[in-house]
Amino acid sequence: MQPNSTVQDMALRALDSFQIEIPSWGFANTGTRFGKFLQPAAASTLEEKFSDAGQVHKLTGVTPTLALHVLWDLPKGVADAPAVRALESRHGVAAGSINPNLFQDQEYKFGSLCNPSADIRGRALAHMLDSIAIATELGSRDISLWLPDGSNYPGTQSIRKRIEWLEEALVRTHQSLAPGQRLLIEYKPFEPAFYHTDIADWGMSSHLAAAAGPQARVLVDTGHHYAAQNIEQIVAWLLHTGMLGGFHFNDRRYADDDLTLGSIDPYQIFRIFHEIQLSGFGAIQDVAFMIDQSHNLKGKIEAMIQTVTTAQELWLKAALVNRDELERLQNQCELVKAEELFRGAFWHDVRPLIREWRASKGLPADPLAALADSGYVQRISAERGARLAPVSSYA
Ligand code: PSV
Ligand code: MN
Fold first, then answer.
1. Number of structural domains the chain divides into
2. DSSP 114-141
């Protein structure tokens, strides 16, 4: 922990430096592969997603942008941009990262940018270029690629050829980026493919980003790792090599579970934030903090607010680590003292400091309680829920 006199200052600077992007798909009905439980408050239109995102930003003050998924949110591509602009000003939230969709069309059954068919690879590349055009039109900095490609059975695909196709496609994608835009390359070791995925880990993402060009970086989705993997070590390496582009935050117990941040392992996010803050609060400008969660059981707006406020708490806890003292203890191999200093910051209750910060910004002290008091969820549940077919009786 820092000495008391500096805690207040540090807290204000840390909280002022922190923003996080919310995903449009977090407000829509989604499910597991076994089915969907529909929520009356779920958003169906882009207008409703912007409206919900506007509520989260109004109550937390730290979510000024909304990540958009191309086919889900912008089915007409660039032609949808004027509508998005209107929604931005109506709801006080700007379009954020643009997420291409290379996973839902039938033609992608055997892959998109890595499909053995040159024709299908070409169509997937064209979608990447369309996504860049949308980002340019909307002024979005980041095009955030998650590639679902892979195979389910050994020997059924050439892993090596697919690497070459992917490199070629990403180089061509990169050539279309406008100055200041970035291509973020996400990795995932499993799902939907279960034998191999074409971008399985941070090493592959990092290689592909370097091969694509100087505006490409790695995106770390915290749910996209094998159990027990040391994610903060990956983050440290990506910071060291200048390849860290951003995060998709969520928590998990088993796989890509999409649980609210910190619900299972808040200490892990604290450790990740500590690594980032070693580069100073300024580092966050080059690291896009985004949420990637889609809730099936919890209320969607509530879950988003829980995640945002938990992220703020963990960011502030990490800021309270006395780094000079920690470095001294590390150099002297004072293991217990170093660990206790580190853990001490994690266990510090930062909620009073955050409430003070919120008050200073004119924000509600407790965003979840303010959401409940506002009646917003009840109102949209009544309005949107009327569209749901009546639930049939099980009797
Ligand atoms: C895939 O699991 C993923 O994490 C990618 O980031 C997608 O864009 C997102 O989920 C939504 O499908
Ligand atoms: Mn993701």
1. 1
2. T-S-HHHHHHHHHHHHHHHHHHHHHT--
